[in-house]
Each structure stands twice: as structure tokens, then as C-alpha cells.
Amino acid sequence: MKTQGDLRKLGSVTTRAARMAVNVLFFCVLPLVGSVLAQQAPSSSGPERQNIRAEVVDQNPDDQASESSSLYNPAHSALPNAPSATKPIHSPGSSLTLGDRFHIYRQSILSPYTLVGPALGAGIGQWEDEPPEWGEGGEGYARRLVSGVGRHLIAETIRFGVAVADGEDPRYHPSEESGIWHRTRHVVVETFTSKTAGGTRIPAYSRFVGTYGAAFISNLWYPESRSTAGWALRRGSTALASTLGFNLFQEFAHRKLENALHISNKPQALP
Predict the structure, then answer these.
(1) 27-67 pLDDT tens trace
(2) Angstrom distance (rounded) from CA 188 to CA 176
(3) How far apart are CA 21 and CA 113, in angstroms?
(4) CA 157, 153, 184: angle at the middle one, nearest 5?
(5) What is the pLDDT of residue 105?
(6) N or C: which end of the chain has fewer CB within 10 A?
(7) Mean pLDDT, all residues of the chain
(8) Cβ-count burial of 178 within 10 angstroms (0-12 exposed, 13-18 middle, 19+ buried)?
(9) Could you tell me the pTM of the whole model?
(10) 202: part of which helix (H) or strand (E)?
(11) Are residues 219 and 228 in contact, defined by beta-carbon separation less than 8 angstroms?
(12) Which residues sit opposite 203 in a β-bridge?
């Protein structure tokens, strides 16, 4: 029968293995995200060409008028909403108003994940007795749970502010493709990048700043032995990895459940 010391030693080995897995995951994920962002770069030149063309047209109104009269087609008058070079086409992300973003933020802090994620994390911390200063038993678990919930709320609040500033769409969008590889790749891209109002993808700055910002802010209530920059980086990386795992759950297990119950897995409509 294993003693308590053996269990803690096993937990320490498991923790080191998990951290190594997180490091390997980042080395595998970064090239994939980089390739996706590189693919977005050429396509972003299209709107720029349209804007340049629009400026040239504005500078030569007489030439444009003569060209339009010579090429006039009565059928065109039936398309008042047709896109033009002077009106850039935006993705659905551009329709997110401040009120919409407050609605998304409210959902993020009132979702079941607000308790489920920290509860699982507190259970792992309880099993590893981490941090040891918080002790074991019900009181130790409660302190770990409250700490996890606090970090989640801080992370989502920071994420909300950054997303408003840089125009990110913070929602998770399920894949419309089939196949395990394509859907897994989609989950990784959705976790580490975000779509902007212009429809292009950028690194998920709001997620990174929120996750690691909350990890460093939590140094205020962590014991002195765990309130260092190194431990904050560990907590942030662990939280980022758990977000990836939660998105995998949404994409695969959660979708199977929703399909069985005939529920849509798409982002909820905004009011």
C-alpha cells in the first residue's frame, strides 16, 4: 500500500510530465499557427487594392463618369446593395458592437466553465498538495477553488478589454469541416489566433494577455514560495493548455452530445 509520501512523489512526477507535455505542445503549435497567419497575409492585400483603386477613382471623377456612361447597363440599377470598391466588405466579426461584447463577456463569466474548470484544477492541486501552504482537507480545497475562479474572472475581464481595443472576436467558432485532423487543426488555430473585424487572423493577444496577466496578478494571494514570475508563467501556461483541452471537448465530445440532442453547436445569437 502506497504511503502519502509516495503519492506526493508520484504527483510531482506527473506534474513534471504535464509541464513537459505543455512545452512540447507549444513547439508543435507555433509553426502551425505561423503557417495560418502566413496564409492570411496574401489575402489581406485584396481590400488594400480596392482602397487604392477607390482613391484613384475619386481623383478622376470625370473619367469615371464617362466610363460609367459608356458601359451603362439597365440591369445594374436593380442592384442597389451590390458591393463597390469604395465600401470594403467586412466579416461578421465587424458587426460586434460594444453591447454585443458585453453580452459575450457576461456569458464567459457566467458559463459552467467558470466553476467546472477551477473545480478540476483545485482537485488536481489538492491531490498534489500544491501549494503546500494551503494545506489539505475542505479548507485547502476551498482556497484552491476560490483562487481558480478569481483567476478566471480576471482573465476574462482583461480579455474583454483587449478584444475591444484590437477588434478581436473572442468567441469560439466550431469547425465546418469533417475529419479528425482538420477539426483538430481548427481547434488549435481558434485557440491561438482570433479573427478581427476585417476578417483576417491575428495572434489571440486578448487570450494571451488575459491568461498570463491573471496568473501574475494571482501572485498577490499566492504564498511567497509560489508568487514568483516563474510560477506565474507556469500557471499561465497550464491555463492556456486547459483552454485548448476545453475547446477540443467543445469540438468533439460536446458536438456529439449536441447532435444526439439536436442542439446547434454554433455561437449563440447576440441580442
Answers:
(1) 444 444 444 444 444 444 444 444 544 444 455 545 444 44
(2) 15
(3) 23
(4) 85
(5) 94
(6) N
(7) 74
(8) exposed
(9) 0.64
(10) strand 201-203
(11) yes
(12) 193
